[in-house]
Amino acid sequence: MNISQASDLSMEYLGKFPGTVSNETKSASLNVRHIFVIRCLSLYALLLIIVGTVGNLLTIVVLLRKNLRRLVTIRYLIIVSICDTISLYGWNLNNFYKFHISSIRGNLEEISILHCRIISFMTFVSLQLSSWCLTAVSLDRALNLYWLHWKQSYGKRKYTKYYIIILTFICIALNIHVLFLNGYRTSSGSIECYATENNPGYIFPQWERVHLVVYNLCPFAIMCICNTYIIVATVRSSRAQDESLPPTVQRKNLERYRQLTALLIIVTFAFVLLTLPACIYFVFFRHNLEATTERTYRYMIQISLSSVQFTSHGINFFLYCFSAKSFLNELNDMLTECLSCHQVNNDQWSFVGVRTNNDPEHESSSLENQRTDHNREMEVKNQKFNNAPQYQTTSGQESEPS
Predict the structure, then answer these.
(1) Helix, strand or coil for residue 185?
(2) Is position 319 within any domain?
(3) Could you tell me the CATH number of the domain that includes residue 75?
(4) What's the pLDDT tens digit per position in 347-379?
(5) I need a labelling partner for 181 at 20 to 30 A (CA). Which of 234, 289, 349, 371 fits?
(6) Residue 223: which H helix or E strand, with range?
(7) Does 148 reside within a domain?
(8) What's the rounded mean pLDDT across residues 159-177?
(9) Cis (ω within 30 of 0) for the bond into 18?
(10) From CA 181, how far away is CA 163, in angstroms rounded?
(11) Closest Cα partner for 99 from 278, 309, 295, 315?
């Protein structure tokens, strides 16, 4: 149903009650506005999937380059990009599906029990693992500054994969119940997701409160503490080194410190500011508004906050380009190499085509050369065979009977 149809139905319904036309007309016009905002934001969800997927894949390719993948921090950021890509195809994709694909405005999770459990499980795990890998980046850098032996003992690159595996296992174990308990089929045959037969509030708000702590509050507290310490420590060390270093080295150190500080601050606060409002709403306000507000108004609030939340998982590529000069340099080098390789391939194909067209005897001469080379190779093999003593027989020698 489009906006004009919704407006016509609303006015047709209001015509039956002349005494309340003025108030209800305002309500109907507000509903039309709400529906317009909802449809625009659902299109934004699709745009976010496209831009976020391309950006995260480019981020992974750039971070896997030789100059960057040797760093511990980069390995965590690769996992963050993978998790961010997965998270965009859960609740964010449902926003587009519900208002542009589904004829009954049903949720993507309500197609089947399998859809309900897999989508909810993958969304919870990917969101939590993404936030904790960002937390691990800040924690690793803070420990490098606080404990000088951290990098040589427990902060080595070879240990990073074990830390990532541990974080992944914890997030999966924490949400494994969603994969087996979430959703049920009602007596009418429809799918009721994010609830069980005996507990309607199984996910919202009960498990969502746990998700708020794991996904947002704990990572936010750790990242704030670590980043504050990193900023203070880097500023102190830069001041102490400035007195004994040449001006050119001072400028390079200050630039590196500014890049590091800017990257940590931007990524951390972008994550918190964009994800915290949605988590707070779904935990504390969603059920309270169900009895006091209209359905379209609630949908508008939910999709607005959801769009803001998943924006944080689709813009890290642009944040890295803006705040990390090394990332931008690697991206430029990669694009330059791709363009040069493409140009070299085109030149090679052009050269082969020109030579083939201008030399009609090229094919015949090539075959003749191949035959000559083959004959020479056979002659060399025969000569080696005749000269090899292990393959020769002694004249007049007969084999003895066994």
Answers:
(1) strand
(2) yes
(3) 1.20.1070.10
(4) 666 655 555 555 554 445 554 555 555 556 566
(5) 289
(6) helix 218-242
(7) yes
(8) 96
(9) no
(10) 29
(11) 295
User: Domain range for residue 167?
Assistant: 34-339
Classify residue 350: in a domain, yes or no: no
Give the other-Cβ count within 10 Å of 253's Cβ.
Answer: 16
Q: How many residues does the chain have?
A: 402
The residues pairing with 185 across neighbouring beta strands, listed in sequence order, are 191
Q: What band does 18 get if pLDDT is binned at 50, 70 and 90? A: very low
Among 100, 144, 137, residue whose Cα is nearest residue 303: 100
Residue 215: CB partners within 8 Å, gap ≥ 6?
127, 128, 131, 275, 279
* 392 within domain boundaries: no
100-124 residue pLDDT tens: 998 888 899 999 999 999 999 999 9
Residue 48, pLDDT above cutoff 90:
yes
pLDDT grade for 276, boundaries at 50, 70 and 90: confident
CA dist., res. 298 & res. 295, Å (int):
5
Quick one: pLDDT band at residue 253, thresholds 50, 70, 90?
low
Token reading at 109: 């999770």
d(CA 357, CA 275): 62
Total structural domains within the chain:
1
With beta carbons less than 8 A apart as the criterion, state whether 155 and 85 touch: no
